[in-house]
Amino acid sequence: MGRCCLNNNDAWIPESDDDGDHIDEEETFFDLNEAAKETGDMEHIVFPFDLNETPEQHQHNFQQQVGRRGHQRKKNPRLSCDTRLQILMWLLNNHRKRDKDKPYYGAYKHIAQMYNVHPRTVRRTWKQARAQKEAFQRYNMATKAKNAGRKRIQVEQDTITSLTMGDRTCIRDLEEMLDIGPETLWRMIKRGDVRAHTNPLHPGLQDPNMLQRVKWVLDLLEGDSPQTKRQYQPMFDFVHIDEKWFYLSKKTQRVYLGKHERGKYRSGKSSKFIPKVMFTAAVARPRFNAQDECTFDDKLGFFHSLIKKQQRGIKKTETRGQW
Fold first, then answer.
1. Which residue, 121, 122, 193, 113, is CA-closest to 152?
2. Phi, psi at residue 191, to the nearest 5°?
3. Residues 229-252: pLDDT tens digits?
4. What DSSP line would sit under 34-74, residue for residue?
5. Which intervals of the chain are annotated as region Disordered (predicted)?
6. What CA–CA distance (Å, rounded) separates 141 from 121?
7. In a 3-state reduction of DSSP, which class is residue 246?
8. Cβ proximity of 304 and 277 under 8 Å
9. What are the residue ranges spanned by the domains of the chain?
């Protein structure tokens, strides 16, 4: 049995491909340093390159080739309302000597070169102005570019206000009631057509409650008669007390750790019934002396309201809890 030997230093000589067709050596091998032949058949070479070129030269040549290959015409920028109005004013000021309603010969081409537009654009602007003049209207060069594209979905404000408060508590409920998509509703929120509002629960005061509040405010006035009651009391003998409940811990709490630090494991008897503690704060009006120096900073104290009490048994047979 013969042994097949292969020498890696030997050059490969093409003879035929898998189908048995002969391979031409001249078409197979090419020199990378050779300039590409400018022929019509460039299917196998998209952009010829030279290995001896610097990256900057290669990028410059690549951009030039892309620019030559571009077949689309560069679009002129859309004229703004101010530019169209300037073109109209120039045409009105440069009219014929005998006919003031027509610009002189070659005015369209002249103004088109000044503003880098086509003469047909200038002629269309002049035709629109003449139609407005014949209809006894003001010159209006407003463009209609804003009307292009998909039309905006309009939602009347009465449709939103007619819904009950319970039907628009979240975006999902509101989009279902208005029969629109969530993206449309988000765009309305960005435009300001729909805004978020937090509706607090106010105390329902009755007439006796409001009368009592007004009476308390009137009692703070100094004086014996309605003519002398024009100034409030300084309220130096008042102490304002307020209490606040705080949870001892939160169900979820965000902290910032180091790169290799592990989060602390927290546990409790229940994640729903977290113990609370009450704090009471007492403040009063600050005091100043004759030199306008603060002698009292209005802070009386901030103390917690905890009562240590012996636990009572639920039944008579149960023992009392320990202190």
1. 193
2. -75, -20
3. 888 888 888 898 998 888 888 888
4. SPPP--S--SS-SS---TTS-HHHHHHHHHHHHHHH--SPP
5. 57-76
6. 13
7. strand
8. yes
9. 81-147, 157-191
